[in-house]
Design a protein that fits this description.
This protein is an alpha+beta fold and 428 residues long. It has 2 domains: 308 residues, FAD/NAD(P)-binding domain, CATH 3.50.50; 96 residues, no CATH class. The chain contains 14 helices and 20 strands. The strands form 6 sheets. The chain has a 5-stranded parallel beta sheet, with helices on one face. A hairpin with a 4-residue loop joins strand 8 and strand 9. Helix 1 packs parallel to helix 11 and helix 2 packs across helix 14. The longest helix is centred in the last third of the chain and has 20 residues. The two termini are 16 Å apart. It binds flavin-adenine dinucleotide (FAD). Flavin-adenine dinucleotide (FAD) binds next to helix 1, strand 3 and helix 11.
Length: 428
């Protein structure tokens, strides 16, 4: 007991955005919080891309902050590289620096007392009477806890990239080095769904990275000042098939006829699963281009959305009273913003469960409550596994606009949350 409050132990498996947010939320709620990550980096796929706040993601972020949460979005703001760069088909987006973001997050986790265990992989889980009792690490160590959060993501492992993609392309998940992703839910026998892309399973990640130093100095300088550039491409590259891409709602001419590149500290090549490097090098300014992620980005990209759990609106996994899921693990939600929001809600609920309190379920009068519940309904509906869900586009975004809930004024959002009696709901 700490100040009369029960201190439980929360174990979060997976140190991507979702796991970091869950572990931070649990620690801020006064619980002992352990974060287990198989690689030697935090943030997983969050070390790529870096776009946040676009469209309804901004509303969702400000709503979480009006409820006293959303701390990790302040970390993104501290590492921001461009505010509102001219990315086609987007509005009000920010881009954080993928090389600086990890340090910003790490210092917040350390400050909150989260015990971070890197290069540590969960390979076995144990349960009794609908309660998870322990997870086991590769070296056989048993880690017990009151509540667990599965934030292991949906990418890879290697053999699934071979089966449903174009082979292992040395992406940042680095399965050959750190071992395959292992889903805690899967270990416990929970039925996991698989996303679809037409006839294929999963989705090939859209977006790869070039080393900025491999661009011509003129192109690199212009990109740094503008934040985003549309580089004309040779005819041989045009209309490249994008059907497999994880993000489909930008299937427009800008992305087919030009190379859309974004400065996120390196060079994000947007919404193309892969481009042969020899074709990239035909483009003026890119004659010396080298891929940075995936290393074999000219041949393919990672496969994601292969391991999805249908949770309830409280993010509890079916069949277990003390297991929550977060991030891409949950119902085909995609994005940094969505991973942080579901992670924070799952971590908050894990802490509440450890204390013996009711789990929090945000009402549908909120963008968060409605958007996340609606994404779950769409997933369970016809063709639901063929779509991806986010506050940044698609049906969740359309609904937000139709319901008049899309809002970019933080004061209006704060007033609405206060009126609903939810101010401080996510505060420790
Ligand atoms: C190339 C690319 C570009 C992107 N660009 C953007 C963008 O610009 N904006 C945006 O919003 N989204 C973007 N995304 C999507 C976004 O990055 C993801 O949706 C989000 O980061 C998912 O976070 P997560 O924590 O759920 O999963 P992940 O980031 O996959 O994290 C899961 C973590 O769990 C660990 N793990 C797995 N199994 C175990 C185990 N058994 N034991 C211990 N650890 C384990 C993994 O090592 C990993 O670190 C991009 C994705 C990619 C691949």
């Amino acid at each position: 007991m700490q100040g009369g409050l029960h201190v439980g132990r929360i174990v979060v498996v997976g140190g991507g955005w979702a796991g970091c947010a869950a572990a931070l939320a649990a620690a801020r709620m006064g619980q002992e919080s352990i974060l287990i990550e198989r690689t030697d980096d935090l943030l997983g796929c969050g070390l790529l891309g870096g776009i946040y706040r676009n469209f309804g993601r901004a509303t969702a972020i400000m709503e979480a902050q009006a409820m006293g949460g959303g701390e990790l979005f302040h970390a993104m703001d501290e590492a921001v590289r461009h505010v509102n760069p001219p990315i086609p088909k987007m509005e009000n987006q920010n881009v954080y620096d993928i090389l600086r973001i990890q340090g910003k997050v790490r210092s917040r986790l350390d400050g909150a007392g989260v015990q971070i265990r890197l290069r540590t992989r969960v390979v076995k889980a144990e349960s009794r009477n609908g309660r998870v009792t322990a997870v086991y690490l590769e070296d056989g160590e048993k880690v017990e806890a009151d509540v667990f959060v599965d934030a292991t993501g949906s990418g890879g492992p290697e053999e699934l990239c071979r089966k449903w993609g174009l082979g292992c392309v040395s992406c940042l998940l680095r399965c050959p080095t750190f071992g395959a992703r292992v889903s805690v839910a899967g270990l416990l026998g929970i039925q996991e769904g698989v996303g679809r892309s037409g006839e294929n399973y999963g989705a090939i990640s859209a977006g790869s990275h070039l080393l900025k130093e491999s661009l011509s100095p003129d192109l690199a300088g212009e990109l740094e000042s503008k934040g985003c550039m549309l580089v004309p491409i040779p005819a041989s590259l045009k209309n490249q098939e994008t059907d497999w891409a994880a993000t489909k709602h930008y299937a427009s001419d800008e992305f087919k006829q030009t190379l859309v590149i974004v400065d996120n500290g390196q060079v994000l090549v947007m919404l193309r699963p892969f481009i042969p490097i020899e074709q990239v090098r035909q483009i003026e300014g890119l004659e010396n281009a080298r891929f940075f992620d995936p290393l074999a980005g000219g041949v393919g990209n990672s496969v994601r959305f292969l391991s999805v759990v249908e949770t309830g609106p409280d993010f509890k996994a079916p069949g277990f009273e003390n297991l929550y899921c977060a991030g891409e693990k949950v119902g085909l939600l995609v994005g940094n913003t969505e991973a942080v929001l579901t992670g924070e809600l799952a971590g908050n609920n894990a802490a509440r469960t450890a204390r013996g309190d009711e789990a929090l379920m945000l009402p549908r009068t909120t963008v968060l409550g409605d958007g996340l519940a609606y994404a779950g309904e769409l997933l369970r509906g016809p063709g639901g596994y063929g779509k991806r869900y986010s506050f940044g586009g698609g049906e969740v975004q359309t609904r937000m606009r139709e319901k008049g809930m899309y809002q970019l004024d933080p004061e209006v959002i704060a007033a609405r949350i206060k009126e609903l009696g939810l101010a401080g709901t996510l505060a420790p």
